[in-house]
Amino acid sequence: xxxxxxxxxxxxxxxxxxxxxxxxxxxxxxxxxxxxxxxxxxxxxxxxxxxxxxxxxxxxxxxxxxxxxxxxxxxxxxxxxxxxxxxxxxxxxxxxxxxxxxxxxxxxxxxxxxxxxxxxxxxxxxxxxxxxxxxxxxxxxxxxxxxxxxxxxxxxxxxxxxxxxxxxxxxxxxxxxxxxxxxxxxxxxxxxxxxxxxxxxxxxxxxxxxxxxxxxxxxxxxxxxxxxxxxxxxxxxxxxxxxxxxxxxxxxxxxxxxxxxxxxxxxxxxxxxxxxxxxxxxxxxxxxxxxxxxxxxxxxxxxxxxxxxxxxxxxxxxxxx
Length: 321
Ligand code: A3P
Prior knowledge:
Bound molecules: adenosine-3'-5'-diphosphate
Largest sheet: 5 strands, parallel
Strand content: 5-15%
Distance between the termini: 52 Å
Radius of gyration: 19 Å
Oligomer: single chain
Number of strands: 10
Mean pLDDT: 92
Structural class: alpha/beta
Number of helices: 17
């Protein structure tokens, strides 16, 4: 079927915009700089479509993060918490589906032409994205009271995790096996969806301005006390645990269902692949799941450099790493 006239015009404008943007190439991938952020080329049409057309519902929950900060875990937790009345935990979809198949990646869905699938999702919808706060459309930030949960992780562990991930999903791109190159890009604020500090600060500030709309959590705190994070998420999204549920140890059951060891060892996450635009091995989302793995990859000097850069960027914000 021929596209409608305004769809065609939109496509032309988008092509013109994309061809005018600064570009950089990593192996076989192209990245485009738009609104002070480097985007993987494949996702940018999805981001632009979201900026133009995404209409949130007030019951929506958006899971935001910088990649490799615990998105998979947050997807599993939010889904298990919010769907606990629908799915008994012992027969939960998370036992047979990768968390990324339970919670849609919004720009990926839009870029893959699955906008209507997102629209057809029943409320309350849970959707994930890595878009910086400053790039979210007014329909989300100003004109909606939908909720956003952001998970932040020590940037040194993010970087190490990103490097392992790249090597796992793109083994053919040999230059990425140089950790030092990625490290330098990170320090220059030049990695995808970044700079990392802007991605984090945008949501942190929003969480201070609008604490009922934006919940800011840390991966390391979640590791230390997952049950408290589960209760905080449930409270934030408006479905706190009842006394009866607490006595029945539902919180503990959710913590266990979504734990790294439990998810990593499920058949569905050991084999198989997932992804709307490209297929990635499901196992690539479960590596070590700990805090401080950077110590095995960076010298004290390299770590100090990142910490100093980040402290400088965070100065006066009230946020520390
Ligand atoms: P490591 O590579 O350091 O192990 P994302 O989901 O944002 O892509 O982040 C992936 C990181 O989260 C990986 O970190 C992965 O192992 C870790 N992770 C995945 N599931 C987890 C879970 N249930 N609990 C804790 N960490 C988890």
